[in-house]
Design goal:
Creatine Amidinohydrolase, Chain A, domain 1; Creatine Amidinohydrolase; six-stranded mixed β-sheet; 17 strands; binds 2-acetamido-2-deoxy-beta-D-glucopyranose
């Protein structure tokens, strides 16, 4: 489920006061941002603490430059087909997808730095390729030139200029052009372009363009699978080291060290014991683990920019879980399996949600499964498409290359919370989705075998 905060993790101990502020803000912010990176233990190295947890993904390569170029050319072809003049993005996960530049490489400020793709048609062959330009503040042009891409033009705007007027003039956009502004861009970007070109159609990208990033290639799937496997291995290594009486914060620090040992970046977990897990994004208390409690871990981490998202609700050998709570665990487990079987190419995105919900309703827990079944996952933890019970007219078809979380849950306030989450991929030619954690055994088998 998790959605980490976008927190820089360099030298966290130097900024403890700000971290506390950030943690406080995140705890009280929206349901979609309950996460943060965690301070690594300064006393012992993760590698020595987890000898059973080697770097899991060392052999998985990052996305090569040729794939980034292919993405941009696909984008250019779709723009051409749609009769659109340009695609425009700020540093963001979308810019990371097409240009390998995210907000980590270029922090957003009030001065726009924009990436622009226009379709360029070869006179000789008719081939359509991406023409990339960067709009940069003039005094920052030297820094923009250090970004890891070679555009055909750096369009520079001086402090006294209207950056959007400079951009539309440099691109030679017709006054009635259609231009797509990435949905992650801030409103003033779209608004500024619209003011510079009052007769243009400035829009967020249509499904034909959003789909490019939604459908993963084999190399992206290999990265996502390894990140999710590593996350599950870290949860299992943590499970072995837990004891009755430990606090949520101790378990959270332990699992953060395990995630670092296994080789994931910007990793962290929501760690909730007993009735605290009935609040899907946490309670903010630091409860001790009792024999009657489940412990819920909802963990994310990054590999080559791609996220994992795995949740386990587990028990220790010494736990004495009430039968009613064990029954809930097994119903959630069954719902997760039914949902996976319903994540099939051609099925609507609403169907898996309905399948999981029907099972939990039959077991009497309809009102306790309070959130959607899942979300797309990739360069964002939460990204489109989403698996939720919308009317069929609003649902979209599930397609090969889609990756989703499959995470049913039952939350009975002040009593118990159970969520089980593995991400899945819809492979070409497969009848239904497979777990991205399959390489290390896939879904949990019982609360004692996560
Ligand atoms: C993308 O950027 C990362 C650094 O953020 C770098 O390690 C990687 O080599 C870059 N990839 C390409 C294809 O340029
Ligand atoms: C690429 O775009 C720039 C504007 O940024 C333009 O000057 C140049 O002619 C374009 N090149 C091609 C091949 O379309
Ligand atoms: C934009 O205007 C030109 C003439 O100025 C016209 O040829 C073209 O069809 C128009 N395009 C759209 C999308 O309306």
């Amino acid at each position: 489920m998790g959605q980490p905060g976008q927190v820089a993790v360099s030298q966290p101990w130097k900024y403890a006061r700000y971290w506390l502020l950030v943690i406080g803000l995140l705890c009280f912010s929206t349901l979609s941002t309950p996460r943060l990176g965690f301070v690594r233990s300064l006393t012992s190295s993760p590698e020595s603490e987890f000898p059973d947890l080697p770097q899991h993904c060392a052999a998985i390569p990052p996305i090569p430059a040729s794939a980034l170029e292919a993405r941009r050319n696909t984008l250019a072809k779709r723009l051409h087909d749609l009769g659109a003049a340009a695609y425009i993005a700020e540093p963001s996960s979308s810019a990371a997808y097409y240009f390998n530049v995210s907000e980590e490489h270029w922090h957003l400020s009030e001065r726009p730095l924009l990436f622009i793709v226009t379709p360029s048609v070869s006179d000789a062959t008719g081939d359509i390729t991406a023409n990339v330009s960067i709009l940069t503040p003039k005094f920052e042009a030297a820094r923009a030139k250090l970004l890891p891409l070679s555009p055909s033009a750096y369009i520079q705007w001086a402090e006294e200029d209207d950056p959007f007027a400079v951009l539309s003039a440099a691109l030679g956009l017709p006054t009635n052009a259609t231009a797509y502004v990435d949905a992650n861009a801030r409103l003033f970007v779209a608004d500024g372009l619209q003011r510079a070109l009052p007769h243009a159609r400035i829009r967020t990208p249509p499904p034909q363009i959003v789909e490019i990033r939604e459908r993963k290639t084999d190399e992206e799937i290999a990265i996502l699978a390894c990140a999710n496997e590593a996350t599950l291995l870290a949860i299992r290594a943590t499970h072995k080291r837990m004891r009755i009486g430990m606090r949520e914060s101790e378990a959270r620090d332990l699992v953060a060290r395990a995630l670092a040992a296994v080789g994931l970046q910007r990793a962290g977990c929501l760690t909730l014991f007993g009735e605290n897990a009935a609040l899907p994004h946490g309670s903010g208390t630091d409860r001790a683990l009792h024999k009657e409690d489940f412990a819920l871990f909802d963990c994310t981490g990054q590999l080559h920019g791609y996220w994992s998202d795995v949740t386990r609700t587990l028990a220790l050998p010494a736990s004495r879980i009430p039968d009613a709570h064990l029954a809930i665990w097994h119903h959630v487990h069954a719902a997760q399996a039914l949902a996976r079987a319903a994540i099939a190419p051609g099925a609507l995105t609403s169907h898996p949600d309905t399948a999981a919900r029907a099972h939990l309703a039959q077991a009497g827990y309809a009102q306790y499964f309070t959130h959607r079944l899942g979300h797309g996952i990739g360069l964002n933890v939460h990204e489109s498409p989403y698996l939720r019970g919308v009317p069929e007219t609003q649902a979209t078809p599930i397609l090969p290359g889609h990756t989703f979380s499959d995470e049913p849950g039952v939350y009975i306030e002040r009593k118990v919370g159970v969520r089980l989450e593995d991400c899945v991929v819809v492979q070409h030619g497969a009848a239904h989705a497979t777990f991205l954690t399959a390489g290390v055994g896939g879904a949990a088998r019982s609360p004692w075998e996560p």
